[in-house]
Amino acid sequence: MTADDRLIVALDVPNAPEGLALAERLGDAVSFYKIGLGMLTGGATIEAAVRGLAQFDLDFLTVHGDPHVVRAAAEGRGGRGLKLLAVTILTSLDRADLDAGLMRAGDVADLAVERAARALAAGADGVIASPQEAAAIRALPEAAGRLIVTPGVRPAGAEMGDQKRVATPAEAIAAGADHIVVGRPVTRAVDPRAAAAAIAASLP
After folding, report:
1. Adjacent-strand bridge partners of 167
2. Tens of pLDDT, residues 30-88
3. 147 - beta bridge partners?
4. Ordered domains of the chain (ranges, CATH)
5. What are phi and psi of 94, to 5 degrees?
6. CB 12 within 8 A of CB 187
7. Does residue 179 contact residue 166 with C-beta atoms inside 8 Å?
8. Average pLDDT of the residues of the chain
């Protein structure tokens, strides 16, 4: 079996042994994984942290979408091949959530596209965005040659869980995503390997 590199499986599990066990079960059905490592801090600390992480064999690093964070991460990355992906607006948020968090008014999609443009202009190699905004981001001049990675992806008929701005795997790729991130539909499946293979097979 050849894994489809457009599928990234989110290893959102409580500890490293569980993540390693799941990766072993998935075997060659998956070749790309997302590992969560939260860090919310100032520019100098981000620069230092990224400098340390860039020494490892990582493909992507997700950072906050604010331009000053992107620039600090780019400084820390230096000339290494690590690609920086900037978060626009989490796929688990809708307008009501943004209002509760005192985010400024405006259509969620418009805000996400605006944040994408700013992050890309600051030097991000790509963005993390809902598949519902992927087409509009792909149309940005700043997005030429850049990556769009979309979480909030659910196979048809799957439970949405805490995700609110979602699409199917095929819809996300058709909208312009380079990679899709899928977690629970794979990791909580009775047969994670078969679930991953089915998602990969559904991609156009």
Report:
1. 153
2. 999 998 766 555 667 788 888 888 888 889 999 888 899 999 999 999 888 899 999 99
3. 126
4. 7-202 (3.20.20.70)
5. -125, -170
6. yes
7. no
8. 87
